[in-house]
């Protein structure tokens, strides 16, 4: 039986400062895509939602991300947390293994962002997964976000192709694992010009 090829990922030179949510390449500050490009493409997504509600939702989403990262990176398990149990089930059902959490990608000019999860499926194909805890899925926004990640991931790792992009929504007992279609390069290029 042939030995499975180990997948090695290139590490970005971009540094992320978590407390202030800033990205730096050397002395140059880069912009995050979820705070710039996604709102530029879809400005009405969160229109009409008050700031306190958005901040509370962001805090709950950040906690869920930390729980998943803790489980993947050091085996920390929070008993009785349905989001984590559903995450573990999705990983098992889809035979996914984690290659990296919060994997930083960038165009090394203006923008940078962290991919929630870089996974491999049982065929060894690369899968990018974005975790969400939103009350509803905004498919177009997440498809754009993951398409940008895909482009920059492949640029950083030219020997690797991203085969699949997924959004995984975990909210209380609700769980949606959906494969998305990448957006066109033309749409993406028009956004960053």
Describe the protein's architecture and organization.
This protein is an alpha+beta fold. It contains 5 helices and 8 strands. The chain has helices spanning 37-41, 51-74, 82-93, 139-156, 185-192; strands spanning 15-17, 22-25, 28-32, 97-106, 111-120, 126-132, 162-171, 174-180. The longest helix is centred in the first third of the chain and has 24 residues, at 51-74.
What key phrases describe this protein's structure?
193 residues; alpha+beta; eight-stranded mixed β-sheet; 5 helices; 8 strands; 29% strand
Outline the secondary-structure elements.
Blueprint: E1 15-17, E2 22-25, E3 28-32, H1 37-41, H2 51-74, H3 82-93, E4 97-106, E5 111-120, E6 126-132, H4 139-156, E7 162-171, E8 174-180, H5 185-192
Parallel strand pairs: 3-5, 6-7
Antiparallel strand pairs: 1-2, 2-3, 4-5, 5-6, 7-8
Tally of helical segments: 5
Biggest beta sheet summary: 8 strands, mixed
- Assign an overall shape: globular
The overall pLDDT, averaged over residues, is 89
Residue fraction in strands: 25-35%
Beta strands, count: 8
Structural Rg: 17 Å
What's the SSE pattern? Answer: EEEHHHEEEHEEH
Intertermini distance? 49 Å
Proportion of residues in helical segments:
25-40%
Summing up helix and strand content along with how strands pair, one would put the structural category as alpha+beta
Assembly type of the chains comes to single chain
Report the uncertain regions: none
